[in-house]
Design goal:
Elements (H helix, E strand, L loop, with lengths): L1 H19 L4 E7 L1 H6 L1 H11 L3 E7 L2 H9 L5 E5 L9 E9 L1 E5 L8 H7 L1 E5 L6 H10 L5 E6 L2 H9 L5 E4 L10 E4 L8 E8 L5 H14 L2
Helix pairs in contact: 3-8
């Protein structure tokens, strides 16, 4: 199957190049949910003006799923959380943004009382098995906190909605496009130690280097 997917992808590239060169056809991009809602709208608008004949095929997914898709050449690139391990030489990473850890709560919280707040209310845990959730889990572990875990979620937008509805509190990164509605935000003063890093992952030898370079440049020019 991987070889078949590669042949199909290469055939699409050949058709596009024969039809009108590098900046036509399709570019397959993956993105985690917060990138889809917080970053991609502005990127897509600007990209459409830069390369109107190049169509972006956007695939949602978790960071680990998107990583595997880029590694197997199913995707040309993906916007995801930086892998917590060394990547092979066949891949390349471009840093996009760093997202500070913050406490979401229904009521205002003094920064010095973050630990007490986490211990005193139900905790909506950003899934520690996810690449981004590891940083919140590290914060909890290093302070020897044992909050009452209400549930595990790998959806930051869903966590924010639950907090706004008074279900509990949560430690999450300040993702692109986040707008606090019906809740309070308390930044964790950590000098970036618990930041979630968002990156663009791509092949070291992409099939369509010019198109991918334009997409990367558009990302850098539009994201906060």
């Amino acid at each position: 199957m991987p070889r078949m997917r590669h042949l199909i992808a290469e055939a699409k590239v050949l058709i596009a190049e024969a039809a009108g060169g590098e900046l036509s056809g399709e570019l397959a991009i993956g993105a985690i949910s917060t990138a889809l809602t917080g970053m991609m709208p502005a990127v897509l608008k600007k990209f459409a003006g830069t390369a109107p004949d190049l169509r972006l095929k956007i695939s949602p997914g978790t960071s680990d799923m998107l990583y595997e898709a880029v590694l197997s050449s199913e995707l040309d690139a993906a916007i995801l959380v930086k892998p917590p391990f060394a990547i092979p030489k066949s891949l390349r990473i471009h840093a996009l943004r760093r997202e500070r850890l913050m406490l979401l709560s229904k009521h205002a919280v003094d920064p010095k009382a973050i630990g007490m707040t986490l211990m005193g209310e139900p905790y909506l845990r950003y899934d520690p098995g996810s690449w981004g959730g590891r940083m919140a889990a590290l914060f909890i572990e290093e302070r020897n906190l044992q909050p009452d875990i209400f549930c595990d979620l790998d959806g930051l937008e869903a966590i924010a909605i639950l907090v706004a509805n008074g279900i509990g509190n949560s430690l999450v990164p300040a993702w692109a496009g986040f707008q606090p509605q019906g809740l309070f935000v308390t930044e964790v003063d950590d000098d970036g130690r618990y930041d979630r890093e968002i990156v663009l992952l791509r092949s070291s030898q992409p099939r369509r280097p010019k198109a991918l370079d334009i997409f990367h440049r558009t990302l850098v020019e539009t994201i906060d």
